[in-house]
Fold each of these.
Amino acid sequence: MIDLHTHTTVSDGTDTPTQLVNKALAQGLETLAITDHDAIAGWSSAIQTLRGDLKLVLGAEISCLTAEGISVHMLGLLFDGANSALLEALENTRDERLPRMRKMIELMQADGIDISISDVEAAMPVGATMGRPHLADALVTKKVIKTRDEGFLELLNNDSKYYVAHLAPTPVDAIKLIRAAGGVAVIAHPFASMRGQILQSSDFVDLKAAGLNGIEVNHRDQNNEERLSLLSIASDLDLVMTGSSDYHGTGKLNSLGENVTDPAEWERLEAMADARRVVTA
């Protein structure tokens, strides 16, 4: 099994990188990618835990915004972790998360929702990159909602009155940064309509021109019709087709390895990086 999209406590997952690697080993995964939001701080401990036959793919899920204000997530895999331009872009996006969170909380407070920035901070693991899932966890603790998933369905999705856009590169710029750092770019869940606004089929032509390598086709948040559309786009544009869990631990229903990537597609994707960076024990 090849799972190319997972999260740890470095961003909004509930497993530490060490715990995630151990779970992947226990479940018999062959290849695991760690792709925390706008962060690579979990790489070192994941590498230290690696053993057996498990292969580790290091990456990040980069938060992007289109010119029209649509939120897009771009998976960067196998890039040089010392590339200064990409690291600076990740840091800038992380720095924007606190003021963004304050604005979302202010909107909620104005509607009488009992929540504060300290509540969100209390819900975050030490060293985590702040995000909407932590706000959801804080709302669960305050008994405003029952689960994190309920929070995204009702209060925190991209179409919610409480949603606040953030400083982020465009998808095209993110792709160029990833490719310049020697990695490969795979757009994550681009047709996940339950999350709010989504891309259009025509958008992929420009992404391909910028260097996009693949599309995450099989994902829990994309229905069969959306998956079939993405399969067609990937075929027409000769893009790699991936499937991933987007695992977050107990924070979401997604199970490790529930969607996986075909080995032949992964072999093709890995060959597109400028160096062999898969980590083995």
Note: The first helix runs from residue 17 to 26.
Amino acid sequence: MSAFAVAVDGPAGSGKSSVCRGVASELGMRYLDTGAMYRAITWAMLDADIDVEDAESIAAAAQSVQITSGTDPHKPTISVNGQDVSEPIRSADVTGAVSAVSAVPAVRQLLVELQRDEVAHAGASGIVVEGRDIGTVVLPDAPVKIFLTADPAVRALRRAKEDSERTNVHVSVADTEAALIARDEKDSTRASSPLTQAQDAIVVDTTELNLQQVIAEVVSQIKAARGA
């Protein structure tokens, strides 16, 4: 590993993206959203009318999908074969299909290689990487591992608010909580790289903390690891 990497894992709605971008911005580090990469490849499958339950077809089609991630925490980007998909990957269709596509071993192998390559080229600034298997699979030797969690009801409230603001359409908190719980179950029980807390990860429960408090805690852990 040629760059100082911070691995941040946790279930959907735990605040990973906001926290990681805030941490990376404060410390002048790069930022990689691996969840966006899985959403991007899911979008590509849907766009090509590939059955997301057909693992063999997905594995074959994934080989021709070129995903490019921008790692500027102030303006992260994601593209598929040169097309910016930052907005469409957040659609309900992609959200509903991403767990199935993410469970395909060939997809995970492909994206893990891309993720490790991003880390290898992050440079002296280092990089904050968020996802669900970063500390356990992608970067098991990362010097700092954080596992963010929160009460499901709180996660649902945050995600529904975020989605409502992004789409300007009211999103039900109850429906969001049910969807989050269902995704937690799928992600935690899949055979390939399940959502699991690394044994040496620092657990940060964000239930009763605001964003700035969580960022401050993670920054403190990183500075301690770097001897700053």
Note: The chain has a mean pLDDT of 93.
Amino acid sequence: MSLGAWTELIASGLITGGIYALVALGLNLQYGLMRILNIAHGEFLMVGAYLTWMVQTSFGVSPLLMVPVSLLVLMALGLAIHWLCFRRLAATSPNLDIFEARGLMVAFGLMFLVQNLISWAWGGELRGYDYLTQPVHFGGAQFAANKLLVLVLALLFAGALIVLLRQTLLGKGVRALMQSQTGAQLVGINTRVLHPLMFGIGLGLSGVAGCLLSMAYTISPAMGEPYTVTALIVITLGGFGSMSGALAGGLLLGVVEALGMHFTNPSLKALLSYGIFIAVLLLRPRGLFSK
């Protein structure tokens, strides 16, 4: 293989990995902070994708302008879902284990509810639109402009979340809650504010990922579930609760999948991902990047 071909292959993996990381960061935020294993997380990625597609095809609005809109709309939806569902579960569950089990069941219900609502509203056909499809040449390699934009924005949002959690007072409160709920509450950190806010930000990131995906790929009502499973694999790679680990794990998984599909068979993608998942669980259960 030439240098240009290697560059295209690695870049393809990084583009996919950037989306993986963005979805995993939102899910990791919800589970690491509140112990909500939101199996429906990928379905809200689909909502962001369909929202962008609908506005672009109906009104001609640039998908780039829909990135902040998707973030805000899905964040507001996340706040509403937390208030309607998970806030009450937390208040009525006698302990954390029961809350996790009940939250998982609620998330399953949300997954099927959103899937069926999207199918009812827009049908099950593949949808898509053309946006920045012209090729960009760089160092002997050729890339689609929309996919490069997807990678840059995914890394930008992922980096912004990590900086928020590491450098701000809000982020310190979130990290304290991840380490010890009781200890954080004893020093005055308000879980009633942080829990819904972080749940909303998690869904907002999923909406951004869906918006970015719609710029370069076709979308369908079944697109969300595989991204939820992949996000769980990425979180396992990076370590539960580790945001920088989720970013590194997403990019790593994307590159490994791209190389594996190129040198073996594209149909082995799922086998490769699940093989990595099982191996990390057995050999490094705390994740590859845990400290």
Note: The radius of gyration is 19 Å.
Amino acid sequence: MDKSYQYANFAKPTVRQIEWQKTEFYGLISYGLPVFTSGEYGGGFTSASVFWPEDMNTDSWCELAQKAGMKGLVLTCKHYDGFCLWPSAYTDYSVKGSSWMDSQGDLVRLVSDSCKKYGLKFGIYIAPWDMHEKTYGTGKAYDDYFCNLLTELLTDYGEVFCVWLDGVCSSSETREQKYDWGRYYKLIRSLAPDAVISFMGPDVRWSGNENGITRNEEWSPIPAYYGIYEDGSSEPSPSRRSGEGMPLDLGSRKAIRNEEKFIWYPCEVSLPMRKHWFFSEDDKYTSKTKDKLLDLYYRTVGNNSCLMLGISPNKRGMIDEVDEQILTAFGKDLNMMFSGNIIDVGAEIRASSESSENCADNIKNDCMTSFWRPGADDKTPELTVYFRTEEPFDKIVVSENITNGQHIEEFSIFFLNEKGKWKPLYKGTTVGYKRICCVKPLKCTALKFTFSKYRDFFELSKIQVN
């Protein structure tokens, strides 16, 4: 019998990956020259003078993000066109070439300060591709330039939780630039050691599409050939070799058969609120509805992933009223659904096995490293929760202690009906950091959790019933 999963058990997250996972839901502010030219990406030759958001108020962006339930914001500090949203000392193609704020503006500073004010984490998006910079395509000279930009962003704007590196490059043979990823990573690690490097980086992987399509099972420990190493090198994964877009299975026993090298490489799902990333009047009626966002949240944050939702203010620097209303209503629903927990100090927890240190009552604590771990000889672990009174609910959240890896493969939930019989309620697969189990609205006095398949052991850190 193949036991590659035992090698996968050795893959565990770093502290920075755990802190990123706790962020769960955050926004990407897509802003720059394309907003003013109605183009998707820009061409690198638009005059910096067109950048003039007359009513910009970054506090309002962060206030909305907070209302929507986001825990952070990432800003597109430099996109493909090369225009910098801060007054860089290394290029004139930036906000200092605009009359906005009398050419003294610094949008990165404003967003960073507003994030601090509203208790949000701050992250930077930066694209190595540069349609404007003359050294692009020359090799080291451009890498020097790009590293200078990174240094400014990572030394002048406070703590950064995420550096989102876009991997797109020019298709022109005369302007081809082979990015020195290893050098970028080394610089980021030295200046922002607590920040994850996302997308084109060794810490966080992209889901594989911008449509919100997710996998039924999302594993964080996956074969090493899907990853990128700290030196910037990588092995060609099967999907890259075959030209496939999004492998639907990365971590099941079938998918990892005969593998021995694994990494912890958690998933981020990213997509725009509207059809395109940058604001356009043509997208006015393409905003995702509140119900669409809720479904997306369940399939991402509720499926061992993080969700980055793209939001783009308009030419005035304001977020469109339609988007604002939808995001505010969405945040209210999230708060209503998940702010409480009917498993409180009065609930009785019984386990088929436990130890004094890792007892079943630990699942009441909102702490990842306080957990229930069944005994090694318990081959069919069960956990039963008895409520003080009959309680209504329609969501059950289950979480593993991922500091020791991801292990649960199959579990089931049963409820105790009015006749005292256990009835099936939900059948699930992977858990990881978080699994949100949506069930039919129900009232009962007890729930039973059974774990039928897992990798050697598991540690359950939390059960939340809402």
Note: The mean pLDDT is 94.
